[in-house]
TrEMBL record:
It is an enzyme of class 2 (transferase). Keywords: Cell membrane, Cytoplasm, Membrane, Mitochondrion, Transferase, Transit peptide. Cytoplasmic and mitochondrial threonylcarbamoyl-AMP synthase required for the formation of a threonylcarbamoyl group on adenosine at position 37 (t(6)A37) in tRNAs that read codons beginning with adenine. Catalyzes the conversion of L-threonine, HCO(3)(-)/CO(2) and ATP to give threonylcarbamoyl-AMP (TC-AMP) as the acyladenylate intermediate, with the release of diphosphate. Participates in t(6)A37 formation in cytoplasmic and mitochondrial tRNAs. May regulate the activity of some transporters. Residues 5-195 form the YrdC-like domain. GO terms for biological process: regulation of translational fidelity. One of its GO terms (cellular component) is plasma membrane. The gene is Yrdc_0. Coiled coil: none annotated. It is a peripheral membrane protein. It comes from Prunella himalayana. Interacts with RSC1A1. Its EC number is 2.7.7.87. The keyword Glycoprotein does not apply. This is Threonylcarbamoyl-AMP synthase. It is found in: Cell membrane; Cytoplasm; Mitochondrion.
């Protein structure tokens, strides 16, 4: 579409200047910053009005980049069955990842959204993006840019990708399914999200992983 490259370039420029950018994803609107930029990570926490104990996910443009920032103990094919898609995979983090990002945990959630703009933006940036939903903590997730107008003054740029999903449907506001794959052979669902059933089916039926509680 017209202006696509310009929008990617403008968003990448704002991020590299340390800014926060609101972005459409395949689930809900998000706010992104460069994960390796500690000052920007602090800005995203203060924007959300949350303490630093709730982790931020990282967002990458391609599955293969995951190996740089995480220790992967599942088959590559499993990653590619779930990503790109509305799933956050929680894995052991590698030394490459900024220590100021979620310093209280050795794990990190990783997203490769099934959204062409987000993937192009992630590819245009030097390292991973830190990504969180575009809302104040404890408020509902947002499916249009107008729904988080109160955050606009604190953002460098807002990318309007139009409404995401069905604004009337509560299911569309669930966000990604968050699954912990850090323990070999097991999985645990941290947040059911919007893709729970297909995700569990792939993990159990195709790869024989067992739920952590069993």
């Amino acid at each position: 579409p017209a202006g696509w490259r310009e929008a990617v370039a403008a968003a990448a420029g704002a991020l590299q200047a340390g800014g926060l950018v609101a972005v459409p994803t395949d689930t809900v609107y998000g706010v992104a910053c460069l994960a390796q930029d500690s000052a920007a990570v602090r800005s995203i926490y203060s924007l959300k009005g949350r303490n630093g104990n709730k982790p931020l996910a990282i967002c990458l443009g391609d599955v293969e980049r995951l190996y740089r920032y995480c220790r992967v103990n599942v088959p590559d094919e499993l990653l590619r069955d779930l990503l790109p898609g509305p799933v956050t995979l929680v894995l052991e983090r590698s030394e490459e990842l900024n220590r100021d990002l979620n310093p209280f945990t050795s794990l990190v959630g990783v997203r490769v959204p099934d959204h062409p703009f987000m993937r192009d933006l992630a590819r245009a940036c030097p390292g991973p993006l830190a990504l969180t939903s575009a809302n104040i903590s404890c408020q509902g997730s947002t499916l249009t840019v107008l729904e988080f107008q109160d955050l606009w003054p604190q953002l460098s740029l807002v990318i309007d990708g139009g409404p995401i999903g069905d604004i009337q449907s509560p299911e569309c506001r669930l966000g990604s399914t968050v699954v912990d794959l850090s323990v070999s052979g097991k999985f645990s669902i941290i947040r059911p999200g919007c893709a729970l059933t297909p995700t569990v089916e792939i993990l159990e039926k195709k790869y024989g992983l067992v739920p952590e509680s069993s």
